[in-house]
Amino acid sequence: MHVPDGFFNLPVSVGAGAVAVTGVGVCLRGARRELDDRTAPMAGLVAAFIFAVQMLNFPVAAGTSGHLLGGALAAILVGPYTAVLCVSVVLLVQGFFFADGGLTALGINITLMAIVTTIVGWAVFRLITRSVPGGRAAIVAASFVAALVSVPASALAFTLLFWIGGTAPIDIASVAAAMGGVHVLIGIGEGLITALTVSSVLAVRPDLVYGARGLARRLVLRTAEGAEVPVTEVPATEAPEPTATPSAGRLRPLFIGGGLVAILLAGVVSFYASSSPDGLEKVAADKGLNAHEQDHGLSDAPLADYGVKGIDDERLSVGLAGVAGVGITVLAGGAVFYTVRRRQRHKAAV
Amino acid sequence: MSAGHHHQLYRAGDTPVHRLPPQCKLVAVAAFAVAVVATPRERFWAFGVYALLLAAVAVAARVPAGFILRRMVIEVPFVLFAVAIPIIGTGERAEVLGMSLSVPGMWAAWNILAKASLGVVASILLAATTEPRMMLLGAERLRLPRLLVQIAAFMLRYMDVILDQMRRMRIARESRAFVARDIRQAPVLARSAGALFIRSYERGERVHLAMLSRGYAGEMPAIRDLSASGRDWGMAVILPCLAAATAVLAWSIA
Amino acid sequence: MTGPRMTGADSPPSLTVSRLAYAYPDGTQALFGVDLTIRRGERVALLGPNGAGKTTLVMHLNGILTAGHGTVEVAGLPVRKDTLLEIRRRVGLVFQDPDDQLFMPTVRDDVAFGPANLGLRGDELDRRVCDALTRVGMLDAIDRPPHHLSFGQRRRVAVATVLAMEPEILVLDEPSSNLDPASRRELADILKSLDVTVLMVTHDLPYALELCERSLILSGGVIAADGATHSLLADAGLLAAHRLELPYGFAVPALQE
Amino acid sequence: MTGPRMTGADSPPSLTVSRLAYAYPDGTQALFGVDLTIRRGERVALLGPNGAGKTTLVMHLNGILTAGHGTVEVAGLPVRKDTLLEIRRRVGLVFQDPDDQLFMPTVRDDVAFGPANLGLRGDELDRRVCDALTRVGMLDAIDRPPHHLSFGQRRRVAVATVLAMEPEILVLDEPSSNLDPASRRELADILKSLDVTVLMVTHDLPYALELCERSLILSGGVIAADGATHSLLADAGLLAAHRLELPYGFAVPALQE
Ligand SMILES: Nc1ncnc2c1ncn2[C@@H]1O[C@H](COP(=O)(O)OP(=O)(O)OP(=O)(O)O)[C@@H](O)[C@H]1O
Ligand SMILES: Nc1ncnc2c1ncn2[C@@H]1O[C@H](COP(=O)(O)OP(=O)(O)OP(=O)(O)O)[C@@H](O)[C@H]1O
Ligand SMILES: [Mg+2]
Ligand SMILES: [Mg+2]
């Protein structure tokens, strides 16, 4: 969905630019609260991860190109303010380093992909976690829904902007239909990946999930002989809350949910898991991290440094990419067909 | 595992363009893009002038045409889209090569293709002549908020870390007789992808700690001097000034 | 395991490397024509200074790197694209860096990964996993994520991942580094108890002497010496020429057995 | 280096750790109340089995991990947020995994990183970099990317990055693992030639004996023994209780000096 130069007229570009600058400015202030010495690298990692996720990039008939967005994931991991900054940084880097997305369209891209997705994703996430108490399972479920909703929301915003100041003379209804349809699908993939990532981070590093912190256990002191010594003073750092360790029963929903996610993922995520990482690697090595060559790089992957053919992932990824490609093509084709039919009907009516 | 991978975006060289301080180049490219976008689409000649300007920069920077063309693949998604506009576009229609095409659609397609391509080539030239690290230093000089620069720096580093971890994981899988024959192996990949995030983060975290333990305080030590002289700025503004002149001319010539 | 284990003098050598040369993609040439043959059931130490090319050589033995020039044969099978899978079943490789070896979310998954690829399932798989982890003394950590272990613990798990595959040829790249002394001895005992061909890279000369009858010295990308460990270690001039030396307080024990 | 070097008995100890406990974010507790004091100029070995908490302890000594409970003092300065920068100038830490230590695109940049953060520039910076690399024998690799070096070469560069900062207190986490025997000795010579406090984690008991008068045994997250290396190594029962043992062929040399 990276918008190139010249896609929107000047007033809309400038207006969105103002929105983006204001938004980023607000977030810079807000992020000071979320971000400390430790989370700065976390923000960097989230940005890198989103960059990787956005490499799953395929042309969409009536939009520029569609891919996963990552705003909701960022908001859940590092908090909404920092999340806007992360995605904005991704877009800046893509624009300046990778020539992906027009420089004059940066305002639009930041508004759509950083601000809208984060706000919508975070709002949905908070809404669910506030109203449904239930620990980890609820967090994972909320991440799924939040990410799922954030993508079509962003597509909707795109359509709105297009309606106000798009330079291409395309019927707004067909833009809305095509963008909406494709992005609901992308949203499902986004939801699955977000839920999987959040649940795997929660499992081993709960301290890294913003808003799911405070699971520290009490420390024990021992003598050289192994006898326990009572802890006299309160630890210098914040007193750990005596939280119950999650019981197996509490974890069951997570496991079941995780299992379901894994099965569903077989399609969507393995595409991501197999093609994207290795494709990414190949692209990085051969083409200088050129994001969009990814889809073309799948067919022959003489793998980078070690000169090994990517025997494992290659067939699988091509197969899956094929399946996904066919799906998207059918959809895109459907959208075009729908548009054309409508126009013909329209003509006939005139 | 560090910035070694970026050399494909960047083409090492020692031309006047390479030597320009990064902050000058960033400003020049952004201003150029604005001039291009502000040009009315009917003035074909103006876009020709822009293309010539970029070609001159490419020659001065010794960036071969093949390199630029290869990197322009990034455009493919919206080229496909642009091609589709005249077909699905609304408005008055004309017969071209036996196809009924929308006239405003063709204008729109031309507008997007021309402006976006010029923007893409300008960005490619910028990345080809400026190391990513320098670009960040340039951005810092331009007073881009420190926080954003820092996140970007970490992001570039983590891209290497992730790539490195992925490479290691792939080799490890293969050396233990893994073959992804069919969809049944997908969960394995999904699971190891889940581990990838944590692993990359923790590796990156340890590296970050190693940096801290060697006195890092949020800013890379500027071993090189990056201040731009008046001459540097003078050189840098040639491109956007010529572009702006063209744009003004394009507006004033009816 | 596919293919019946052959024994007897007429079986092909476990490893045959001839005139192997290799340059890394950045142009650094690491191997300049390596020749070696390791017979079935031998335990051989690969010694040599840092940067000699030991790791590079070892990575060729199961096709992770492909020969720039020359050939590698494993149990008579040339390492080629179509034989890779079979070769990786036969050759178990323990990497120098345990982080290169471990990639699954838990130790259990990681150790099970190899045998599962060989087609094992269910109880048999569990048995293999527990067995391998017991051997290296890491059964307690079975449900922990490998990247949350200490370096030495990770190395032990890395060894277990390969033991669980029960390969016929074990190639170990400095398996004893970062191990505590007891684990080091336990590893030696494990290796002695297995009836497999072993090629072990090490900088620990006493360890090589204890475990391997034969040693190779790789230096500057070529094999500089090949012979009985005992006699190589007795040749002070040879050792010094290749940055090898016996450690402080060590006396070559009199030939035993 | 900031602050004049103090000598004499009245200067505060280089390192004081008291009742230090720590748990990793996933809940694994690694330290259970560590107490130790290291005086200025001492060379001390930290021994102990895999997973004992050695790395975890070492990471507290320059504030990379922050104490869950208890305190750490460096040259009289408590490790706190506001003293961190000063403490990191004083304590040079060599990580167990060189990949964690090296992050710049070339060896030169990497070694220059620390001194540049201390404010050095120009010739003085170059001198430090070349000097440190010469000491570890890696000057030839100065323009190569660190991730394209062999493991042992990376470890040598990792040591150089810390030497270049000329810290008052050197903390090394298994610096000799993966080094070839000659480099191992050269490292020992370097450490002996420096007039700094050294705390060295190692599994190589003869190496500890050669280099350090005093040793600590960390086991199960607490200090289990503290004394002269020579006498600790002579106590077979103590060693065995903590998975330590003298290697094959090694005889504790008679007390020298
Ligand atoms: N990825 C790489 N790219 C380029 N050169 C490399 C790479 N890995 C290793 N080298 C170089 O190849 C040579 C041999 O390296 P190798 O890792 O095989 O040494 P080694 O004998 O295993 O050393 P060590 O004992 O330190 O592990 C060295 O000069 C090294 O710098
Ligand atoms: N990142 C981590 N997360 C959780 N637990 C950890 C982590 N790192 C280490 N541990 C655990 O903490 C304990 C102490 O680990 P540490 O790395 O300090 O051991 P060590 O004494 O350095 O061992 P080695 O000799 O193997 O390097 C071990 O039980 C280990 O499994
Ligand atoms: Mg090696
Ligand atoms: Mg350790």
Automatic annotation (TrEMBL), chain A:
Keyword Membrane attributed: yes
Domain annotation PDGLE: ranges: 253-342
Transmembrane segments: 6-28, 40-62, 68-93, 105-125, 137-164, 254-273, 316-340
GO cellular component, as recorded: plasma membrane
InterPro entries named among the record's database cross-references: CbiM/NikMN, PDGLE_dom
Lipid bilayer topology: Multi-pass membrane protein
Protein name: PDGLE domain-containing protein
UniProtKB/TrEMBL annotation, chain B:
Family annotation (InterPro entries): ABC/ECF_trnsptr_transmembrane (IPR003339), ECF_CbiQ (IPR012809), ECF_transporter_component (IPR051611)
Transmembrane regions listed in the UniProt entry: 44-61, 67-88, 108-127, 233-253
Gene Ontology CC annotations of this record: ATP-binding cassette (ABC) transporter complex
Keyword Membrane: yes
A Pfam family the protein falls into: CbiQ
UniProt keyword annotations, A-Z: Cell membrane, Membrane, Transmembrane, Transmembrane helix
GO BP annotations, alphabetical order: cobalt ion transport
Membrane topology qualifier: Multi-pass membrane protein
Principal subcellular localization: membrane
Subcellular location: Cell membrane
PANTHER family given in the database record: SLL0384 PROTEIN (PTHR34857)
Name assigned to this protein: Cobalt ECF transporter T component CbiQ
Organism whose genome encodes this protein: Sphaerimonospora thailandensis
